[in-house]
Design brief:
binds inosine 5'-triphosphate; about 170 residues; alpha/beta; about 45% helix; Maf protein
Length: about 170
């Protein structure tokens, strides 16, 4: 089975490879998210994940397309880090699942509300480079307990499990 991952981000690719068990061929493509660089709601982040999955399966001529998208969601408690994923398949309508979420520190949230993107803000905050491709904001603010790849692995397992369940209903 040919699985097309709609991103070249190593944290996302690692997560998908970990979440699938069995004989699969993985490819990654630069899929189109169709949403803003910094999605600012669950709705927008889900849309980005769906667009990536659906664009990945088309570009890569795969059996399955996987889209993973990061974003934030405003709440009365502060700004939540959110992540969403989608599987597009040739057999049925797309499936979605959400990842674990944490509140971002207010000093980060203020910068995002002022129009900055989380990736560069995290690099600036930590004095490191490409945090989004490594441990991610979740890794930094959980003291390394859960990094971005692990969070996306869990999210992808939610997708794969639902995908298998849907397939078992079709057969
Ligand atoms: O290469 P792609 O797949 O586009 O990966 P990305 O990390 O750049 O893009 P996302 O769509 O996942 O995230 C949207 C924005 O939020 C940033 N972001 C999301 N989650 C993050 C995290 O855990 N740590 C750092 N930046 C994050 C990211 O850099 C983008 O600017």
């Amino acid at each position: 089975m040919k699985i097309i991952i709609g991103s070249n981000n190593p944290a996302k690719i690692e997560a998908v490879k970990h979440a699938f068990k069995g004989n699969y061929d993985f490819f990654s493509v630069n899929a189109f998210s169709g949403v803003s660089e910094m999605p600012f709601s669950d709705e927008e982040t889900i849309k980005g994940a769906l667009n990536r999955a659906e664009s990945a399966i088309k570009i890569g001529h795969g059996d399955i397309g996987i889209g993973l998208e990061g974003g934030v969601q405003e709440t009365t408690y502060g700004l939540l880090l959110c992540n969403w994923g989608a599987i597009a398949s040739n057999e049925h309508s797309s499936i979605i699942a959400g990842g674990a979420r944490i509140l971002l520190p207010e000093e980060i949230a203020i910068r995002l509300r002022n129009g900055e993107e989380l990736g560069p803000v995290m690099d600036d905050y930590t004095n490191k480079q490409n945090i989004r491709k490594k441990e991610g904001a979740v890794g930094i603010f959980t003291n390394g307990k859960i990094d971005r790849a692990e969070m996306f692995t869990h999210l992808t397992k939610l997708l794969v499990g639902q995908y298998e369940y849907h397939r078992s209903l079709i057969k």
